[in-house]
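Ops channel
N.P.: pipeline sanity check, posting one input/output pair.
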């Protein structure tokens, strides 16, 4: 069985997420390699890279909540909503008090509508938004619902504002700072961003991509089950695993209800062998098969 699993890496500031994947690919080839959630070059922090069969689990890592330490400069704006774009200062902008900033932050928690930034990888009529933005094309991205679990002010010395953010999938931190500033009658650009966690993956446990070598990279692999740590589990017998891996359904364990969502199927050793879901009455079928 070729090596497969997840790498909890700390992407350095100034490096693209694609570059991190390329570094791992050189070590892991011919295995497939992909990452679970892009970090812009300006940002650093947790980047989960999936190798081999674990690439089938990328979407499950992407669904996990994220935590960030973000820094913004108020009274400034840029087309990219961060300091990588051309930054201009507003003329005589308001200087909000700490109380005003905290109240505005409180209004941006829970399920909110967020308009993604023009400089993003979202597609507009089949083209990446950032390509159109660089060409000076005018377009509007539709707002979408994102969830902000925590938005705490951890430092404020105008114009610098530091936030601790925990959010759901699909949230743009640049745009969160933009909207916070707008609610205060001003503007903001993001000047620094560190992703400190994705689900159970923590920055304290991550290591730099340049620490990986041909001799040691497999020792850093986390098992595929780490991608679905909070998912309910069911232990499968050897015969059931063979059925699942051949695409067949098996009887659901007693006590499961129709409302049950996806379930992690594991072998006797606790290794992930499949993601299962209901298939018909009282049956479980494979959504993703993972070799073990």
């Amino acid at each position: 069985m070729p090596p497969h699993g997840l790498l909890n890496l700390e992407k350095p500031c100034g490096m693209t997420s694609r570059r991190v994947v390329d570094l791992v690919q050189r070590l892991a080839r011919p295995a497939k390699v992909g990452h679970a959630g892009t970090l812009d070059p300006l940002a650093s922090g947790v980047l989960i890279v999936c190798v081999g069969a674990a690439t089938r689990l990328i979407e499950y890592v992407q669904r996990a909540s994220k935590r960030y330490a973000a820094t913004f400069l108020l009274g400034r704006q840029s087309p990219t909503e961060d300091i990588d774009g051309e930054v201009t200062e507003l003329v005589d902008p308001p200087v909000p008090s700490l109380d005003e900033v905290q109240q505005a932050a409180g209004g941006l928690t829970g399920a909110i509508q967020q308009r993604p930034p023009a400089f993003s990888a979202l597609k507009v009529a089949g083209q990446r938004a950032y390509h159109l933005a660089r060409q000076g094309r005018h377009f509007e991205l539709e707002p979408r619902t994102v969830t902000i679990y925590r938005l705490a002010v951890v430092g404020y010395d105008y114009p610098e504002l530091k936030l601790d953010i925990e959010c759901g999938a699909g949230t743009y931190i640049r745009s969160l700072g933009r909207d916070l500033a707008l609610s205060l009658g001003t503007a903001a650009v993001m000047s620094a961003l560190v992703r400190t966690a994705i689900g159970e993956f923590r920055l304290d446990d991550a290591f730099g991509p340049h620490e990986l070598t041909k001799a040691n990279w497999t020792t850093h692999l986390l098992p595929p089950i780490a991608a679905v740590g909070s998912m309910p589990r069911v232990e499968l017998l050897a015969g059931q695993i063979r059925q699942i891996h051949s695409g067949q359904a098996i009887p659901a364990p007693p006590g499961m209800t129709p409302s049950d969502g996806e379930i992690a199927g594991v072998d006797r050793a606790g290794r992930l062998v499949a993601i299962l879901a209901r298939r018909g009455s009282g049956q479980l079928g494979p959504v993703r098969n993972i070799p073990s």
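N.P.: looks fine end to end. The longest strand covers residues 144-157.
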